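In the lab's daily routine, each protein ends up as an entry in a very long ledger. A line of letters takes care of the sequence, but it says nothing directly about the fold. The fold becomes a row of whole numbers, each drawn from a learned catalogue of backbone shapes. The protein below has been through that process, and both of its lines are reproduced in full:
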Amino acid sequence: PDPMPLPRLGRGNMGGMQSLALPLGKGPHQVGCADVMVGHTRQGLFLRLFYPCLPREGAERPLWIPRYEYCGGLADFAHRSRRWCAPLLNAAIGSCRVPVSWNGPFKPCSRRYPLIIFSHGLGAFRTLYSSVCSELASWGFAVAALEHRDHSASATYFCPAEAGSEEWIPYQRVPQGQKEFYFRNKQVHQRAEECVRALRLFEDIDSGKSVPNVLHQDFDLSVLKDSIDLTKVAVMGHSFGGVTAVLALVKEPSFRCAVALDAWMFPLENALYPEVPKPVLFINTEKFQTPESVAKMKRLSSRNSQTKIITVLGSVHQSQTDFTFLTGKLLSRIFGARGTLDPYKGLDITSRAALAFLQRHLNLEEEFHQWDDLLEGIGDSVVPEAPFCRPNL
């Protein structure tokens, strides 16, 4: 199946006011975020960093869709005409903001924060998982949400060395005549390598190297020195990002575990499954997985007793993205974003299961083990093992 259901636009009215009510993190820390771009070529990195921050009066909140170009990219990804779909998306969600402090003052911590590298799904970009990233940051993690440059983001860009210039990297479909597996497999390897490069970036900062942020923002990366615990690093992602996280465990020994949200296992070659050395938490939705994908997850869980598979009932693939918090009929219809489960409850289950798993495998001193039952699929709206799969059509 296509790993992200394509929007179905209905005709008729706008379906009432659209709004994006992203939840505030429930943890003890306020959350800041900053965009970081390193290097002037495609081989550099682009990410949005979520981190615990100090309270600041009148803090600015960042836009959820950072630039108009991303609306055009979403239209392309959804097989819609840019001419009418991009302005419609911009009118509907262009002014939505994320409830975090933009470039907020980093909160120093004697214990250092564990690090999560986050990989987005096909057709997404760095901001579309702000709810789960800011939730985890509110519990004391630094979360680096990558924007991949393998043509799987609906749009992204880099800044060549000439002052003020930008080069955009559009979303690319599987070229005609090419087998999808080979195209996607090449992408998943590039994505996993970008996850490893993100870890190297934090290692460079920690070693005292000067790392200039090409975006010239108010956030000084040197404040992260001695603040990130590089012995406690996990990798996480959704859909295409979920399988990216699994592959990153093979490529980088410093990643101690992975959290895979509704992972799209199709792009990973079979030879690599025996190579996955660390535990994975698979958090599936009820409506997305195929028997083939689930068989691959079970292959990993049969090899490692710490690998867990749970399914969140009443959820759909988009339930693990910010789209699930869109209100208004039009956009819920465009993005197929709502299951029957309340989105706030879905986020709670996902983040608490992830926190319990991360405590166990990063050896954290927190109280996240209070949610250990979720890892066994015990609780309201969650079941152990994989969902009942629809046949792969």
